[in-house]
Design brief:
The chain has 95 residues and is an alpha+beta fold. The protein has a domain at 2-50. Helix content is 42%, strand content 20%. It has helices at 2-20, 30-50; strands at 71-79, 85-94. A two-stranded antiparallel sheet has the order 1-2. Helix 1 packs antiparallel against helix 2. Residues 1-26 form the signal peptide. The chain crosses the membrane at residues 30-51.
Length: 95
């Protein structure tokens, strides 16, 4: 609504300026230049009022962290130098 109102006010202001201008000489190019500038300004204002807002940029997320390793404690046998089991001790096992 705000842009539409601004466009209407700009068009009416440009129209009032062109109607209030004093008559120019026949060999003067000032009116043609003024009409070109006014047309460009009017097109810029109307184009800005009708333009759609830009969509928001895409949001990129970091990949999730890898899951922590799965660990547990098992009792493992302990062998002597002859290969005979002499007991066991707890060992942490991770995958």
């Amino acid at each position: 609504m705000r842009k539409t109102t601004a466009a209407i006010l700009a068009v009416s202001a440009i129209g009032a300026l062109t109607l209030a201008a004093a008559p120019a000489r026949a060999d003067s190019a000032g009116a043609a230049v003024a009409a070109g500038i006014g047309g460009f300004a009017l097109g810029a204002i109307a184009g800005g009022a009708l333009a759609q807002p830009a969509p928001p940029p895409p949001v990129y997320y970091a990949p999730p962290p890898p899951p922590p390793p799965r660990c547990w404690v098992e009792r493992r046998p302990v062998f002597d130098e002859y290969g005979v089991e002499i007991g066991s001790r707890p060992r942490r096992i991770c995958e």
